[in-house]
Write a structure and sequence with these properties.
- The chain is mainly α and about 450 residues long.
- The chain has one domain.
- It is built from 15 helices and no strands.
- Helix 6 crosses helix 8 and helix 13 packs antiparallel against helix 14.
- The longest helix has about 35 residues.
- It is globular, with a radius of gyration of 22 Å.
């Protein structure tokens, strides 16, 4: 059973000249989907240039990389994970995009949404849905290892840049309340830190020597950024996913009680570090972190969310089968909840599709999470982004969610294919995902 659960996804076609470039492009897309935009939007601020000087070319580069990755995938005759959950996702896309085009092109809604319509359309198609298709490629262990290392490296630069901007503001005499930039709101900053934290934890267990020291430092840096964002969702998500990471490792490898206690101690240390960081930040700045947890939902942001929730439900009630609008008409924004957004924009039909997609993703994610530590981190990230969509973000705009959803489905499809092609005993002699020796860097 241990050998079977360590089986992986697929191998590249032997002798194909397109294999290595294709895997590298896919690994880069993984990293860019997770930390690319925060890095592209933060570095210009550090360098003192306009953000659009970098962010616009970055989005074009991601679209180009997506095209190249899919072309190389076809060139090496690699298979894509096209199952029922993927087809249901595409059907949900059509409903959401159809609603958006109906409300913006064919029968425009009264009023102006929070962002220009052209930008909304370009972001939803060019930055959310199209890039996600590349993640239907079935990766190898090497692909995911490279993707994890690239995410750690680029994420470390992004986190360090954000922390530098926060400290620079304090030294310049500005009152600190929540870590953010002109482009990234505190919730986005917090989820960036949580993502890097989860990805780094995945590589920590197999690290040795100086690489382990670097990853421990990156864990500390990511937790500091999560706490400094003063955002409830990312803080809770980071702690819950860290615990899930520990429990999955216990189930996966049958660890001894000492091993479990060691991992729980690591999480307890992270919590203690977070508490210490919260105490320091609250004592030296204007940030009110603890009050956001025990103070209820009386702040202005929470009150605005309540208005969006009520407005979205009212729009759903007007046309329950296929929805009424892609944005809430009172504040002209998405409702920051994927269930209400789906009901508002696609009605009961859309909600049924969403539930079926999430059910398929949950089953695939459970198998991926328990298969091998080196392939489990996309499943953890998918859960993080799902938590994020329950309290912030939009199905039409959050490309990370769709990318990790398709990634988990692709990894699961590859694992199923590997088990079907070879008996469990053959995994020791082959090199599919999860069968190679753990890397130590």
């Amino acid at each position: 059973m241990a050998n079977e659960t360590r089986a992986a996804v697929s191998q590249p076609t032997a002798g194909s000249l397109a294999t290595k470039p294709a895997l590298k492009f896919l690994a880069l897309l993984y990293a860019l989907a997770i930390v690319g935009f925060p890095l592209a939007s933060t570095l210009p601020t550090v360098l003192g240039v306009g953000s659009q000087v970098v962010t616009v070319p970055f989005r074009l580069m991601v679209i180009a990389l997506t095209g190249v990755a899919l072309y190389l995938c076809l060139l090496r005759r690699s298979s894509l994970a096209i199952g029922s959950a993927v087809l249901l996702s595409l059907a949900l896309w059509l409903l959401l995009l159809g609603r958006m085009f109906l409300d913006t092109v064919f029968d425009p809604l009264p009023g102006e949404p929070g962002m220009p319509v052209s930008q909304y359309v370009l972001l939803s198609i060019g930055s959310c849905f199209l890039p996600a298709i590349a993640f239907l490629q079935i990766p190898t262990t090497a692909t995911l290892d490279l993707a994890r290392r690239l995410t750690e490296a680029l994420g470390a630069i992004a986190l360090a840049s954000l922390l530098y901007l926060g400290l620079r503001g304090i030294f310049d005499g500005r009152i600190f309340s929540r870590l953010s930039t002109e482009i990234l709101n505190p919730i986005s900053v917090g989820h960036l830190g949580a993502s890097v934290f989860i990805v780094t934890l995945a590589g920590l267990a197999t690290s040795r020597g100086f690489a382990k020291v670097l990853r421990i430092g990156l864990v500390v840096l990511s937790l500091v950024v999560v706490v400094a964002s003063v955002s409830r969702g990312p803080i809770v998500a980071a702690l819950l996913l860290a615990l899930l990471h520990v429990l999955a490792g216990q189930v996966r490898r049958g660890l001894s009680m000492a091993g479990l206690l060691a991992r729980v101690s690591l999480i307890a240390g992270a919590i203690a570090l977070s508490v210490a960081a919260i105490t320091f930040i609250e004592s030296s700045t204007n940030a009110q972190i603890t009050s956001r947890f025990y103070g209820g939902f009386g702040d202005a942001s929470s009150q605005e969310r309540m208005l969006l929730f009520r407005g979205a439900w009212q729009l759903f009630a007007e046309q329950p089968w296929f929805g009424r609008s892609y944005v809430e008409l009172g504040l002209m924004s998405y409702p920051h909840n994927l269930v209400l957004e789906t009901l508002m924009a696609a009605g009961v039909v859309g909600l049924v599709l969403l539930v079926l997609v999430l059910l398929g993703a949950a089953l695939a994610g459970q198998r991926v999470l328990l298969a091998d530590a080196r392939v489990a981190w996309p499943a953890l990230l998918l859960l993080q982004y799902l938590i994020g969509l329950m309290f912030s973000g939009s199905l039409l705009l959050d490309g990370r969610f769709w990318a990790m959803l398709f990634a988990v489905l692709a990894i699961d499809a590859g694992m199923s294919g590997a088990r079907a092609r070879a008996p469990a005993a053959a995994f020791r002699d082959s090199a599919p995902l999860g069968a190679a020796e753990p890397r130590t860097t």
